[in-house]
Amino acid sequence: MYDFVVVGVGPPGARFARRAAEEGYDVLALEKGRVGEPLACSGHVSTDVWEFTGEGAREELFQNEIYGARFHVDGPHSDAYPFYKREVASNVIDRVGLDRHLADLARDAGADVREEHTVTGVTEHRDRVAIVASGPEGTVEFEAKMVAGCDGPRSRVREELALPEPEEFLHGVLAFSDEADHEDFVDVHLTPPTFFAWRIPRGEAGVEYGLAAPPGVQVTKHFEELIDGYEIDVAHRCSGAIPIGPPDRVTTRRAFLVGDAAAQTKPFTGGGILYSMTSADHAAREIDPDRPTTLAAYEHAWRDDLEREQRLGRWIRRAYSLPEPVQRIGLGALSGEIGVHMDRPTSLVSMDHLKALLSRA
Ligand SMILES: Cc1cc2nc3c(=O)[nH]c(=O)nc-3n(C[C@H](O)[C@H](O)[C@H](O)COP(=O)(O)OP(=O)(O)OC[C@H]3O[C@@H](n4cnc5c(N)ncnc54)[C@H](O)[C@@H]3O)c2cc1C
């Protein structure tokens, strides 16, 4: 019997597996495909990401550094409203490489990470959890004291255990052009209803164009308009779901969700790499597989840390739906140097931001 079976080896699955193995627990981590594949993420993260990686990660994964974002209420030729920091605000990184790097750290810590194992069944018993997976040798069964559902937005673990779903799923699409671009600003277009489209320079790795929007929005049409506006040819299209709004409960008696399965994402960008790994750390710190009551401590810990950020993030997102003239006035008034941390909207009320505002004067 394992202490933990982790389902899904994205950033939170790998991070939790590593941390739990370092605590001395017996950890099995199952990934349905190859770690990191298929890609469905921009890999645009705050520089805090390097606090979660190991030796040599930056040299291996770094693609470009970003100082700010230019907001547009319309397409590429519309007015740009820049928001920027004096220091590097974020990095663009190789997301497939990040997942592989984090999985290697989990293996180094002693976790048994197995690829090509798709979990198809999870049954909770009073004293254990039974997990069924389909692997290269057919169907295999495992038992664990607890199961961690780190299996993304359409989580099988969540479904099997009848845990509630996130409030909303956005549909995100990406594609790439291959010209090198080392510019240090991303572009954000408030064109698709209630969310946005983007252009991210990825250094030698080319340029990424993307868009996310809720169901009902004609994502393909808006994406074609974006590409046409930039007058560019793109390849390697990919897409994925972005969960927004965590459900009220992400734990049962012997199971817990981490990452997109629990909608631990930023409501105003859909970003979830940092929140998911932060939550994985809360899980590893709080949960003792021999004491199911410790799951409540995990629920409290991650919500205490992220709930206010997510609440404020939802308010920021509402601004994407304001009438265009109001957006122009707001962006015109607020643009310029800022001191806000991209993962922590509450830093709008911080000394750093105040200093940045004063320096404009
Ligand atoms: C278009 C798009 C762009 C994005 N851009 C950014 C960005 O720039 N920055 C950012 O921070 N976030 C971004 N995100 C969000 C980010 O990708 C997620 O928040 C993050 O990947 C969450 O990690 P996760 O491991 O919870 O989910 P996932 O990355 O989806 O990983 C889940 C893992 O579980 C595995 N799995 C699923 N089901 C099973 C099963 N039954 N058995 C075994 N394994 C299973 C999957 O194969 C996968 O490896 C973006 C998302 C999208 C869709």
Automatic annotation (TrEMBL):
Signal peptide: none annotated. GO terms for molecular function: FAD binding; oxidoreductase activity, acting on the CH-CH group of donors, NAD or NADP as acceptor. Residues 3-164 form the FAD-binding domain. PANTHER family: DEHYDROGENASE (FLAVOPROTEIN)-LIKE PROTEIN (PTHR42685:SF21), GERANYLGERANYL DIPHOSPHATE REDUCTASE (PTHR42685). This is Geranylgeranyl reductase family protein.
